[in-house]
Amino acid sequence: RGSFDDIEKLYERGVQEYLNIKLWRDYLDYVEEHDQSVSQCSQSGLSKMRDLYERAITAGGLHVTEGSKLWEAYREYEMAILTINDGNDEEKAKQVQRVRALFHRQLSVPLADIESTLAAYKSWEAEEGNTRDPDSQVDDVPPNVLSAYKKASEMYNARKQYEDELSDAAESEANKLQVFLKYIKFEESFGDPARVQVLYERAVSELPVSSDLWMGYTSYLDRTLKVPAILKSVYHRATRNCTWVSDLWVHYLLSLERIRASEDELRHVFELAIQCSFPSMNEYLNIYLTRVDSLRRGMPTGLDFELIRQTFV
């Protein structure tokens, strides 16, 4: 039992480090197979598994080329629950609705194999006895689902050229970086932060020591998302991957101050920063001055001046 907890914690650390669809799939399979409450389909097991699938979808469900692997796994899980559901008709109807809702959600997301998802949905509805003609393109697909599907298809087609360029640029990191930067700029112009974030996560998982990407990602989050937990996580990873980039440390400190992090947290990050090896004296100077300015701004809240003096010394 202890080893299950240890392995689960390791998966948690892994999925929080980088976006990797295969790792999420392995994690989901592992919990489904080895967690007793899940394999016995108890109420708590069902809730736990669904929560984990929802987290996986939030993290990677928008990944244009690989996101469908997470949606499919989630759907298969709910379908398996449906087949072993020997409860009353009301329970069964609820479960059918769960599977249908997952299909509908997936069909509204621009993913590479969206057409085959529509075909799978129609044949599933046919099996459930809810359709007249499984070969027809639009028959019996609710109009709201159909219009969401058409919009998602258009969105996918608009992104396909970038996805093709990324798969072509596999051999050269410099090329790949340029494609990612173009793609990110394109995605930012649509103003959907969740899509931009997934694209940045894809980029930094493939080019983890690109300071251009980390600088772009963190400043994007500072400007638009401003969610403390996400900002801390991304800055933490950015400064761990690019320890030598003083601007990242400076922005990290300023960002922590903006989200009203505690003095302990600010001091901890400052201490980490000055232990790094920077190319020149100016980088250290910038970090010290950022720290002093931050302490000075904090004085009205009762920080003692002695701390500023020590930092100057």
Account of the 3D structure:
With 313 residues, the chain is an all-alpha fold. The chain has 2 domains: 4-152, Alpha Horseshoe (Serine Threonine Protein Phosphatase 5, Tetratricopeptide repeat), CATH 1.25.40.10; 184-311, Tetratricopeptide repeat domain (Serine Threonine Protein Phosphatase 5, Tetratricopeptide repeat). The protein has 16 helices and no strands. The chain has helices at residues 2-17, 21-34, 36-39, 43-60, 67-83, 89-107, 114-127, 143-168, 173-188, 193-206, 211-225, 228-241, 246-258, 263-274, 281-298, 305-312. It starts with a helix and ends with a helix. This is Suppressor of forked domain-containing protein. It is found in: Nucleus. Keywords: mRNA processing, mRNA splicing, Nucleus, Repeat.
Short description:
The chain has 313 residues and is mostly helical.
